[in-house]
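Hi support team,

I've been running sequence recovery on a batch of backbones for a student project. Most finish fine, but this one hangs at about 90% for roughly twenty minutes before it completes. I'm not sure whether the input is malformed or the queue is just slow. I've pasted the structure tokens below so you can try to reproduce it. Let me know if you need the job ID as well.

Thanks,
M.K.
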């Protein structure tokens, strides 16, 4: 047996042990994950073209969703592209969007137990990217199972601004006076107009790969009381063990919700 085969066998044993210890432990209903480190992974592997990192990162998404299903998670948000990323040069943004489109098409085409929605400022995406992403996600409509939000062209501050605009548009479209809404405007008016239609405006747990220790506006409104876990591993190298370790960390925390 090769060393690689031995390591693989030992990893499977460790995965089973970790999963067993998590049975009955507190677990997050909604997990947001920042898929970071694709370009650094490519450089570390000796690739001159960062697209190799994007491709490997995209290929990891399907496996990650299966691990989340096995862990009995209800709702997962994948941050694949920020609205700031849309300012990258076309020669960088184009290949990244191509990988995102292919990734979304792949996870929507397989009969996985999940239902997918594309969220973000989709009107800012170039070309027909938004149309392709929405068409792929539509294949999963009504499928049920785990809820998966794929955030593309997403920014937390932009989401809040768009939610406020949507609340006023809804109010005025129904013949309401804008000043009337100003007087009674509350938290719920934003919560009910966030990008995701999943019906949950809070996030329990946020994971960021690559060792970066900041949220960069990810799920800015929803993460008020979220627990946060930073992992050193770059996204293309992320393993089921890393997810289970993150969930173990979550289970060991005392959530105070600001109290």
């Amino acid at each position: 047996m090769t060393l690689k085969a031995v390591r693989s066998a030992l990893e499977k044993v460790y995965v089973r042990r970790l999963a067993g210890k998590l049975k009955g432990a507190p677990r997050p209903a909604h997990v947001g994950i920042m898929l970071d480190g694709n370009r650094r992974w490519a450089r570390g592997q000796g690739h001159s073209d960062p697209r190799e990192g994007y491709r490997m990162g995209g290929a990891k998404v399907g496996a990650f969703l299966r691990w989340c299903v096995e862990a009995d998670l209800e709702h997962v948000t994948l941050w694949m592209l920020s609205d700031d990323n849309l300012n990258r040069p076309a020669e960088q943004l184009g290949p990244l969007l191509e990988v995102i489109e292919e990734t979304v098409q792949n996870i929507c085409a397989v009969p996985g137990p999940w239902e997918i929605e594309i969220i973000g400022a989709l009107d800012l995406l170039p070309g027909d990217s938004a149309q392709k992403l929405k068409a792929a996600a539509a294949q999963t409509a009504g499928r049920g199972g785990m809820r998966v939000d794929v955030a593309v062209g997403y920014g937390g501050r932009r989401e809040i601004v768009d939610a406020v605009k949507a609340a006023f548009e809804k109010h005025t479209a129904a013949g309401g006076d804008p000043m009337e809404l100003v007087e009674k405007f509350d938290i719920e008016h934003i919560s009910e107009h966030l990008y995701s239609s999943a019906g949950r405006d809070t996030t329990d747990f946020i994971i960021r790969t690559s060792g970066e220790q900041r949220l960069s506006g990810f799920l800015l409104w929803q993460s008020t009381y979220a627990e946060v876990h930073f992992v050193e591993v770059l996204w293309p190298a992320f393993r089921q063990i890393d997810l289970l370790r993150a969930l173990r960390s979550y289970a060991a925390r005392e959530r105070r919700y600001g109290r």
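--
Follow-up from support: It reproduced on our side and the slowdown came from queue contention, not your input. The chain has a mean pLDDT of 94. No action needed from you.
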